[in-house]
Amino acid sequence: MNSTVSNRKPQAGVSLGMILLKGRTFIALAILLLYFSLRAPNFTEWGSVVLMVKHASIYGLLALGMTMVIITGGIDLSVGSIVGLSGMITGGMLIEGIRLPWIAGTLYPNVPLILLIVFLLAILVGLCSGELIARLKVPAFIATLGAMYICRGAAMLRSGGATFPNLFGDAAKGNLGFDLIGAGSIPGIDVPYSILIFIAMALIAAFIMKKTPLGNQIYAVGGNERAAQLSGIKIHKVKVFVYIFSALLASMSGIIMTSQLRAAHPATGESWEMNAIASVVLGGTSMSGGVGTIGGTIIGVLVITVLNDGMIMMGVSSFWQMVIKGVVIIFAVVIDLVQKDLQKKAALAARLK
User: Is the pTM value of this prediction over 0.85?
Assistant: First the structure.
């Protein structure tokens, strides 16, 4: 009788620990919301809430793509630089157009064409990173670090480090309407377009991961790449896809941010990749690959956004903000390791029954 009781106690402890660990992101979000509601002025005002959700949508786009990349066991350090480059390319085309030396003229593309060009450029960056990683076996950290420097340097070169201001477009050039992407909202219900774009892309990402063979292949590659290859999964195509998707979402984030500011600066997006990685890890995605959900990442994005905006409202120094976010990232990774250890203990206990 005593032996039976002693065998059950560790199981209950492990189960309780697992429940708390799996719900850690919700718990962290609830604690932050309560703390900043009491300590930060204007935190609960409607305008502040809408602003936080808009910030979450911008960071969230990066985190959605980063989730897929990390689930495959990779990392994408270039997303923040793609944000800056996308903004600079957009701003340059709105103000200066595209010079056509063979006819000594300048083409001023309309907004849809500008977006198409920026998206194609981002896809090219993601394709190059994916090919380096999948075909040439360059470590993801090195390949995307190189892409980060190239994109940031290209953004600086586009204007010599200067800003493209007043990006409202010009009726004479036929490129009006760009500012509505980030600053506009649905009439009557006052929901910003940027939030709707994020929701749409989150639904697409969740559908891919949960309802398509590609989603299963992404999990398989991150869980055990060798086994996935032996089962017939085209590893190369899966890896190239996730880096293209990540770059494409980063370009969307850059366009929205540029539209909101109505200005493009080459430094926009600096260190945003860290926010994306922190959001993904906080959301339960394992840095070793094979585990993660889009829903968890969205909660992680909200945690990072509330933490960022709450500290700003409280007047916390930007230096301390960096320190705190670094601690959060390390803590999230440690918790992930603890969760894995508990899962192993639970599996071992189940086998010994």
Answer: yes
What is the per-residue pLDDT across 76-134, written as a single tens digit (0 to 9) for each? 999 999 999 999 999 999 999 998 877 767 889 999 999 999 999 999 999 999 999 99
CA dist 353 and 299 (Å) reads: 36
C-beta separation of 71 from 296 below 8 A: no
At residue 90's C-alpha, the angle toward residues 143 and 132, to 5°, is 15
Q: Given this model, what pLDDT does residue 15 score?
A: 64
d(CA 246, CA 35): 33
Are 299 and 29 spatial neighbours (Cβ–Cβ below 8 Å)? yes
Q: What is the CA radius of gyration of the chain?
A: 22
**In angstroms, rounded to a whole number, what is the distance separating the alpha carbons of residues 105 and 99?**
6
Determine the length of the chain. 353
Cβ within 8 Å of residue 281, ≥6 positions away: 70, 287, 300, 329, 332, 333, 336
Task: Give the least confident one: 52-66, 147-161, 306-320.
Answer: 306-320
The residue whose two tokens read 């290209």 is 154
pLDDT of residue 5: 43
CATH class held by domain 46-336: mainly alpha
- Of the candidates 74, 39, 295, 53, the one whose C-alpha atom is nearest the C-alpha of residue 197 is 53
**pLDDT digit string (tens) for 257-280?**
999 999 999 999 998 998 999 899
* Burial class, 47, CB count within 10 angstroms (exposed 0-12 / middle 13-18 / buried 19+): exposed
